[in-house]
Specification:
Elements: H1 9-24, E1 49-54, H2 59-68, E2 73-79, H3 87-97, E3 102-104, H4 107-112, E4 118-121, H5 125-137, E5 141-144, H6 152-165, E6 169-171, H7 179-190, E7 196-204, H8 223-227, H9 253-270, E8 281-287, E9 301-309, E10 312-320, E11 329-335, E12 340-344, E13 347-351, H10 369-379, H11 387-406, E14 410-413, E15 418-420
The protein binds nicotinamide-adenine-dinucleotide (NAD).
Length: 444
């Protein structure tokens, strides 16, 4: 076991090439700091699952609101680098327990607490890898928001770290726990739709970042800690809360933001279980066609096509301006004889090759996504959106951004869980260089 202090390009490539085998066989950690201090206690029956929220005010707050309803859960602490993002969440916890939560601005202080069993990670994408791996090393289970990472190298290390530390990580792709999507996946997997020929996934792009101006950093925000491992940049409000997703330094565009939901359903339907089919080749075209007078630097219009060899089929991902007459997002499975299943948040339809609706029965509902994590923390079984599986979906989304940046198609090997050849390996979405002093722990 050795500790690496920085991820060089060579190390990143080595990590990526070893991870596929690592996911399938045993994990060989090359970084395993503070293992001796890792918390060994596993919450048992009658024992509260004590949680902290890292990243308040947005989706993390929503996750906490779902979890605080569970009788097994106790929310003990909140952490954010912006004090102004915390008041609503403080109120939620205080109203529930009659006592305010402990407040932090540095997540590492939260992780030092031995009484905390798990963390909810609701920070922007550029922080997930460090938040999660450091939490795992401190012995915590985690509910981590999607996409799991900002690049492919991080995704692989995160999945391997969870396996190495034997921790239970649920990713926030809650569609995996809702009736329409589980019915769609069951129907496609049962063979009732027929042999799959193609999968179409889309989400309308409706948001830009606007134009920003340089401004003094607000006193309520620790901007250096907000930036973390991303490249330093002058503070502008339209690059930070919520809008970070439209910038390649901190986000992954609509493909990482929503592709990770809709493509995830496509991959699940084409797979036997949560070990997902992976494409052998990914091509993508796109650019800024809609939000032209806008600071965002991620494409607002993307068309991506990927080929899978096993099973032999195509998946198409699209984002761009709205089209009337269809839901603003969805996943469609199309069989070789033209039958189509369309599923979106709020609906599910199956059509025969002539467009006539075919009635289908819903499969029995599952418990909710947050309960699934709580149950799995107790049983130590893998949750529905386990991190190994969500690393696969996240990597597929990153491959689209990688192909866009490479301006050529990118070949991929599921066996090696890596890009084949050189194309794409210079992309930030394959591997980013961390801003000092931050270092990505690499788990192979
Ligand atoms: N599952 C879903 O349906 C869903 C929906 C929306 C967002 N998300 C995901 O949730 C995550 C958060 O998205 P959002 O829209 O809520 O973002 P946001 O910008 O609104 O909130 C993120 C919060 O994290 C805080 N933060 C940043 N760095 C931090 C650090 N080092 N330590 C502690 N706090 C830090 C920010 O100050 C901010 O308050 C993203 O990964 C996003 O993709 C998931």
């Amino acid at each position: 076991m050795e500790t690496r202090n920085a991820v060089s390009r060579r190390e990143a490539i080595a990590a990526v090439s070893a991870i596929g085998a690592g996911l399938a066989a045993g994990i060989r950690p090359v970084h395993a700091e503070s293992l001796s201090s890792a918390r060994k206690r596993t919450p048992g029956a009658g024992d509260k699952l004590v949680l902290a929220l890292i990243g308040c005010g947005g989706m993390g707050a929503n996750d906490m609101k779902q979890l605080i309803k569970k009788p097994e859960v106790q929310i003990a602490a909140l952490c954010d680098v912006d004090k102004n993002r915390m008041p609503n969440d403080i109120k939620t916890v205080t109203d529930k327990y009659g006592k305010a939560p402990d407040l932090y601005s540095d997540y590492r202080k939260v992780l030092e607490r031995k009484d905390i069993d798990g963390v909810i990670i609701g920070t922007p994408d550029h922080w997930h890898a460090l938040n999660l791996i450091h939490a795992l090393e401190a012995g915590k289970d985690a509910y981590c928001e999607k996409p799991i990472s900002h690049d492919i190298t991080e995704a692989r290390s995160m999945a391997n770290a969870a396996k190495y530390h034997k921790k239970i990580v649920q990713v926030g792709t809650w569609q995996r726990s809702t009736a329409d999507f589980t019915t769609a996946i069951d129907y496609v997997r049962s063979g009732k739709l027929g042999k799959l020929a193609k999968i179409h996934c889309w989400k309308v792009e409706e948001r830009g970042a606007g134009r920003g101006v340089n401004a003094p950093v607000p006193t309520n925000l620790d901007f250096d800690m907000w930036t973390g491992p991303a490249a330093a940049f002058p503070y502008m409000a339209n690059h930070v809360h919520n809008a970070w997703r439209w910038f390649r330094n901190t986000g992954t565009g609509k493909t990482g933001d929503w592709g990770v939901h809709m493509i995830d359903i496509g991959l699940l339907g084409a797979s036997k279980d949560t070990d997902l089919v992976m494409p052998s080749e990914v091509a993508a075209f796109g650019g800024k066609f809609t939000f032209v007078d806008d600071d965002r630097d991620m494409a607002d219009t993307v068309q991506a096509i990927m080929h899978f060899k096993d099973p032999d089929l195509l998946l198409h991902w699209e984002t761009g301006k709205d089209q009337p007459g269809r839901p603003d997002h969805g996943t469609e499975f199309v069989s070789t004889d033209g039958k189509t299943l369309r599923v979106w948040r709020g609906g599910l339809k199956v059509f025969d090759a002539y467009g006539e609706a075919i009635p289908i029965e819903n499969t029995p509902p599952t418990n909710d996504h947050w309960q699934n994590w709580v149950d799995c923390v107790k049983s130590r079984e893998q949750p529905r959106s386990n991190i190994a599986s969500m690393a696969q979906t996240t990597i597929v989304c990153h491959l689209i951004n990688v192909a866009l940046e490479a301006k050529q198609s990118v070949a991929f090997s599921k066996e090696k869980m890596d890009i084949v050849g050189k194309a794409g390996k210079d992309s930030i979405f394959y591997h980013r260089h961390y801003r000092a002093p931050w270092k990505l722990p690499i788990y192979k």
